[in-house]
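hey can u check if this looks right to u? its 471 residues, i copy pasted from the old doc so theres a chance i mangled smth
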Amino acid sequence: MKKKRQTKIIATIGPVSATSEMIEALLDAGVDVFRMNFSHGTHDGHKQVLDRIRALEQKRGQPIGIIADLQGPKLRIGTFEGGKIAVTKGQSIRFDLDPAPGNAERVCLPHPEVLDVIEPGGKILLDDGKVRIRITEKGPGYLIGEIRTGAALSDKKGFNVPGIVLPIPALTKKDRVDLEAALGMGVDWIAQSFVQQPEDVKEARELIAGRAALMIKLEKPSALARLEELLEFADGVMIARGDLGVEIPPEDVPPAQKRIVKTVREAGKPVVVATQMLESMIANARPTRAEASDVATAVYDGADAIMLSAETATGEYPLQAVEMMDRIARKVESDENYQNMMEAERPDALSTSADAITTAAYYVAQDVEAVLIVNYTMSGSTSLRTARQRPEVPILCLTPNLGVARRLKLSYGVFPVHEGENIDDFTGPARHAADIALRHGFIQKGQRFVMTAGVPFGQPGTTNILRIAEA
């Protein structure tokens, strides 16, 4: 286990990283959770990857988290007669529903619901914002726009419509099929793309029906505006800065990131910062200084996890990207300013006895110079509450539920161990926890740790005891 880094690393599996050997190498380099992108690949291919991860999990005797990332309603234009066109500032272009290949004057926009809601003066951003268009005219089944920026457009480029809540479902037909396939495989997290409103999340949660945890991806301004409402139905959040950075001005992304991390942390749920973190390492063995700073900023913000996408899925240097991210996170966490920032943003205790216990565990661990906090938990909620405090010491989570252990691999500082033994008194758990902590190298003989548990044992939601113990 990588015990000296509290911030977790997620790596996306793709063509360059799908073999058993590479998956194991990525784990050794510092990966905590693997992401399978259902925008690409086949169900059979994803199942093979999942089976390889589970085989590695069995071999290593440690839980590994797996995220299935759904594509969502990715909006795309149609095709062009020659595959692409050149565009110039001031040029007019028509969007309509005709599926015939387009040209320099028109192109298919196969989404009538989008044509319905855009009005003159509105904007369409194509190809991740490289081509920006202002709508000048609207008619039955068509829009006419003026090119404001851009040089070229090619087939099936994605588009964004900033500032508008689109009347389209967050779960497409493809997503529903992919969702059932992913749940059947036994993934631990479902990442839902292009969420706009609470109803989107409620629908996904009902379909998942407890078979996995639900992570919402923040890519739309409408989701940012209703973040607190969305959090009521989500188990975690991913800040997908690629699409978000197209939908809102680039200068708004950094403060939005900080606000989201703070809000989600206070809610006691994991938050992931993703997209373009070490993007130059897709083709280069070293990142830019700006990228290193970007990763460090996410760690300083207090994110639970930071994520690599194409860097490990299709890049030329997947292992080096993970190793670099690991080194950056460790360096930040060893900075005195980092702990000061975590302390300054520490949320208040919630008005429950269980949260009072876990908050007290954090302060007691500081006072007695404990090197570890141990949580016995059935549902994982105790470890989530402990992670919310961002303690300096690791959180050893002991749970009889393997699914809970896998999901918690995403959470800040939590190192889950799947333990099926029955414990029936409060002297037994302390000895049991000490043995496990010693075995995994979290603690040395004679060192102190703080432990939380619930009596009676084995019942979720009963955290009511705190104990100081010694290995």
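The radius of gyration is 24 Å.
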